[in-house]
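User: Can you recover a sequence for this backbone? Please restate the input before giving your answer.

Assistant: Of course. Working from this structure:
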């Protein structure tokens, strides 16, 4: 028998073809607390507003809800064969440049959170030497209600790990080539979703009816690299654009993250001050779309 004390539970999502119509999840991912973060922080926001009235009372005694929605974050490892819908949910847009809606179930054993009309606000992918490849999603949903437990189809494959990633960098204005010296990479994808809380600051506000994507995707990140040469530092110092591509592969199953244009905006290069430490170059970058506007700054496939 499942119990909350044994921390059992699951997360599943399904892509909606239209807004407002819940679909049963057909993608199941095991949430994972890696580090100090909780794996699930998606919470109902009741947005109660207490009223101050000239009614001869010196207390707040009346209130209303300005509207409900849910928001929070989900953290899980990337698993081979389970990424097609996830990558589409993060990056795909319709003809109006709006992101995809999804439905989800988050089973916390004694409460099942059922979410409808959920969008990815931001995604962060972390690749760290010796660790599983992790993904964190900041999400917002227009509706959260009590759901019912189901029988999930949790993947049996182990998560991708760093050693299964092939990293390619373009340096000196040249073509992409494999680089074995990167040991930590973080990529942040911001879908510029309008924050639902912005409409709730006035008493007259109501719950949002949309979660608009206000523009095309924004992307930035950072990488840490053994200082075995000055190729990356030289590009940073000269303002030369670079490129980054990552392929995760296990057998015939693969996924790629491509950043065709990156600009290094900061380089934290310095001596460690100890014979027992290596010189590691930490570089922040901004990912850019193509000049003709046809290619996004990040492509997930």
């Amino acid at each position: 028998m499942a119990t909350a004390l044994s921390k059992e539970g699951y997360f599943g999502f399904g892509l909606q073809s239209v807004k407002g119509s819940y679909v049963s999840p057909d993608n199941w991912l095991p949430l994972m607390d890696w580090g100090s973060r909780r794996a699930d922080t998606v919470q109902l926001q009741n947005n109660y507003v207490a009223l101050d009235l000239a009614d001869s009372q010196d207390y707040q005694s009346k209130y209303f809800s300005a509207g409900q929605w849910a928001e929070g974050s989900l953290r899980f490892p990337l698993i081979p064969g389970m990424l097609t819908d996830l990558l589409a949910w993060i990056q795909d847009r319709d003809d109006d440049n709006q992101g995809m809606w999804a439905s989800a179930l988050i089973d916390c054993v004694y409460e099942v959170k059922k979410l409808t009309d959920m969008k990815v606000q931001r995604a962060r992918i972390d690749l760290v030497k010796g660790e599983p490849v992790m993904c964190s999603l900041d999400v917002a949903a227009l509706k959260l209600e009590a759901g019912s437990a189901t029988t999930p189809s949790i993947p049996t494959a182990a998560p991708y790990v760093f050693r299964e990633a092939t990293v390619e960098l373009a340096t000196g204005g040249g073509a992409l080539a494999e680089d074995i010296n990167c040991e930590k990479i973080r990529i942040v994808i911001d879908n510029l979703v309008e924050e639902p809380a912005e409409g709730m600051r006035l008493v007259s506000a109501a719950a949002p009816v949309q979660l608009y994507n206000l523009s095309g995707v924004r992307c930035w990140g950072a990488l840490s690299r053994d200082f075995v040469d000055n190729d990356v530092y030289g590009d940073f110092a000269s303002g030369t654009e670079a490129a980054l591509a990552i392929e995760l592969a296990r057998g015939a199953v693969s996924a790629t993250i491509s950043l065709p244009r990156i600009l290094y905006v900061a380089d934290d290069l310095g001596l460690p001050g100890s014979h027992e430490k290596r010189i590691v170059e930490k570089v922040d970058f901004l990912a850019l779309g193509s000049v003709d506007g046809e290619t996004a700054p990040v492509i997930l496939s």
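That completes the design. Residues 132 and 161 are 4 Å apart (CA to CA).
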